[in-house]
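Continuing the series of single-chain predictions for the mutant panel. This is the parent chain; the variants come on the following pages.
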Amino acid sequence: MRNHFISALAVLLAALFLRVTPIEFALLAISILFVLFAELLNTAVEAVVDLVSPGYHPLAKVAKDTAAGAVLLASMGALIMGYLILARYVLPIYGKVLAMFGTPSDLGTVVSVLIVIIVVVMVKSLTGTGTPLHGGVPSGHAAVAFSIATAVSLNTHDPLISLLSVALAAMVSHSRLLMRIHTMTEVVFGSLLGAGITLIVLMLFKLLGS
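Parent structure:
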């Protein structure tokens, strides 16, 4: 519920900032309320199931999974609604921001990813944590994933492709948390490191090439 409320607040503030129409704002609000409603029902179902069946039971699992599935469907519906409404406001602005950086060279893209990998290995060696391919500070998977997402964004200048690339990088990073290989700090550090180094290297290649 905390995550849902934070997301809802961010979306509604963005809608007010972008000055969406009253109908669009109402549709966003309804979608958000539907997700919160589904989450409340999911919590109620889980509480009742735990009360009735404290131990493991196949039907208890089915009830909890079904309730969680309802929240997932509601969230997907809200995501689609949010995209259809906010995309025409956000994507043009995001496209202009990407265009400001220009198109980097192919060599710069390859070099930036390689530098990210080298820096990750060096930092892990200096901190004495993890191995080059597993654990430690920072998350190598997050660093490389966001490095590639940054390179794709600056090479394509396509807002939708950029957002999908960032979403994929976020999923890769989140998997490291789910597998308990990295902490949130290690993942965030890796993400910022990968994106930051890639952006700097690509800008340097652009300046040297111009």
